[in-house]
Amino acid sequence: MARLAQASWGVALLSAMAACGGRIASETSHPGTSSGAVGPISVTGSSSGGSGAMVSASGGGVTAGASGSVDGAFPNQVINKIDMLFDIDNSASMGDKQQYLVAAIPDLIDGLVNPNCIDNATGTITGKSMQGAGCAAGSAPEFPAVKDMHIGIVSSSLGPRLSEMDPTFVTGVCNDPQQAQAPFQNVNAHMDDHAHLLTRSLTGMAPNLVEGAVADAGSGFLYWYPVAANGMGINGAPTGPATALDSAMTLETDFTSLVSGVGVFGCGIESQMESWYRFLVQPDPYATLGLNSGKLVSGQPTAEWVGVDSTIIQERHDFLRPDSLVAVVVLSDENDSEIDVRSLGGLGYFFMRTGFAPPHGTSACMTNPLSAACVSCSPGNTDPNCTMPGGGVATYQAVNDWGYDPNLRHVHMRQKYGIDPQYPVERYFYGLTSTQIPDRAGEYPAGANGYSGFGTNMNCTNPIYAASLPQQKDLAAGIATTISAADATTLCSLPVGARTSDKVFFAHIGGVPHQLLHFMPNDPVGSTLTTADWVKILGTDPEHYNYNGIDPHMYESYTPRLAGQAEPFTNPPTFDSSGTNPLAPTAAPSTTDPINGREWITDMPVGAHRLEVDRQFACIFPLATPRDCTQAVNGYACDCPQMAGTLTHDQTPADCSDATPTMQVAAKAYPTVRELLVAKMMGVQGIVSSICPTDVTDNAAGNDPLYGYRPAVAAIIDRLKAALSNACLPRQLDPAADGSVPCLVLVTLPTPAGGGGGTCTNPICPTGVGLTVPASSVLAPFCAAAEASYTGEKGAPGDPAIQSVCQLAQLVKGQAPATDFDQNSSCAGSQDKGWCYVQGAGANGCSQAIVFANGSPPAGSLTSLSCIEVSPTVVSGDDAGP
After folding, report:
1. In this structure, are residues 568 and 556 in contact, taking their beta carbons and an 8 Å threshold?
2. What string of H, E and C letters represents the secondary structure of 44-94?
3. pTM to 2 decimals?
4. Residue 734 needs a FRET pair 20 to 30 A away by CA distance; which of 317, 617, 843, 879 works?
5. pLDDT digits over 553-589, tens only?
6. What span, in angstroms and rounded, lies between the C-alpha atoms of 551 and 593?
């Protein structure tokens, strides 16, 4: 096979790549925290800016404390809809994992539509609120049954990404359309699903597999919207184009068909995070990728995005509601592989080309990837890593080298190449949490060689946080080939809606040993990940390439991760196996290490194995049915040699039988580092579970909580239920003679774009919205406690120290205008800004509640309540406080 780096223009290309350099993801700060991945939601108040929003406080938010106090953070936006998007890896190794997801679907659906009944006195589970009909006397549902839900699926396959234009390998990688590998050769491989919602089904057995469509998903997704006929309560007329489903069994059946229809023969260079970002977030998703011959770098055309995918625009409009809880669930056994084709001055697409021989990075990259001396080798560089015997720039060329193999190029890119053409992982974090994100022009403004989509370039309203979304009909004619200024405005300048970041969740079922997650059934607190847990999973500071303290099973490597053996780099991290167990050497039996079998020699003799080079496993789990790799029908997904004796024991993958090396007895997963890093950044909005099940068979009763992906389902439901709860204040408050209650509502305002919004201890409180500066005696302890509990990066958006904290006015009947209160003594319809305490009918089903008036607090803010059952100290002016 030809090597592009050795072509006549190869020297110039290397020089251009070296000059463009590599974007370093860690240069961008993020407000993520390292608090729990599997555990309870920290009930944080968020402002919808909607009139008459009710306080939701139980389930870990506001609590009744000692000395008559009532304190805590609380949400002020009631959520009764869920929009849940599954992003499923459909590469060859995913078949066994997809089956466990299928098995978990009934638990997920049942857990959301039939919540547990909780005994009012003991807090124990007494049964199920079947079909939302309610619970027996003395108990109550732990959250309202979900009666309005969209469920959609995208796959990890995004096609060739310009590799099909490779002049030395004309077939490219992941070309579409093409038939799937045997034994599925009678169906389309779907190498490029375009991040469109999937509606296909696959029935039958290979080689007679039949592709069809799930009729109820004709609009791209499933719409759970039960009506009174099934005992779920009257929802009213369905909205939107989707078919409304009112049978939980039908929903489960349809969802199962959609998961099965994803397939296991998609693109092996997966885009696990770009697919959901492209569908939900990117304001102007491209219609096609192209090469711009009018813009050359070192004589090579540069990559560009062409047009807008109007199918995504319409599907997003129909799927994503402005007032729903949003959950993104990513199922994958491999690290995110997406290449940003526009990186490296527009030459990033070369890393998708099979014939490309990437350059080495300089010696500094092997020890300190953040060093200024870490660059891509180029002509004239005399660094020892950059020269070849006889002259020329050192490049990766061996087909069994993880620096050359296209499927492994995404691993440790900056260490190997001195450049990193992947999207910064922060892009996905901001896509889930920020109301402002960049469009394509903001990501690559004129003159930018690398991704620049942060800070001042976040120029568009994030569709996740928009009040309304454009449709196909809003786009100008010819949108498939160009974008006019009017189109850009339509896609970018969207009105900001009510959703806040605490109503957006990211769940990842991926490559991490379940032992590192210590999931405990029915104990969300005990299952919560600590900072020390995250160090074992990702290392001390993975964004700055400090992997010290990582569990050895989680370190990405193609060589055995053992002391005294060859390491990929000259600065191997200090491992901590206290969360699992020490690694087993290559010579050990494959049953020695219960986590991943053992280490093994992954760079194979050419032709001896399905993969020429591989990575060490994070974890493995037994297959329900062992796979005979000597059979051609199993070749598409078999890890073991096809002929006995072609590999030594040490070269045979650890998921193969020691007794019969051609028999695959386990499934494997690699460390899914980038997906896990996003979950860590998300803090309490992040959910993590292992793709390697604890128990691979269910118990006789069919309710083993550790079977398959039940831990993932339990974690997802535990997180979502608090955001769905219409909870109440835990006890009554005693109003004073004038009708007021001795409480403060403190509002933490979002950091404005570009900063300048004040600080916690020196806030800027906008006038005219019912906000004033709290007393210093209130701010000092509040700010100190907020900063002490914050574990994100100091100075980053989300750091409480740089957010203004203001006091929201209390509206009191008899003091405010009579029109502020209705017949139930509620201020929900008030024209003034503020809040009031309500009991009885005005508390919307609660015995007592806090009600917000006229769009209070401002959209995007977080709220905290403190009530002390003693007479307040009366202080005038800005020092007024409790």
Report:
1. no
2. CCCCCCCCCCECCCCCCCCEECHHHEEEEEECCCCCCCEEEEEEECCCHHH
3. 0.85
4. 879
5. 999 999 999 987 777 787 789 999 999 999 999 999 9
6. 14
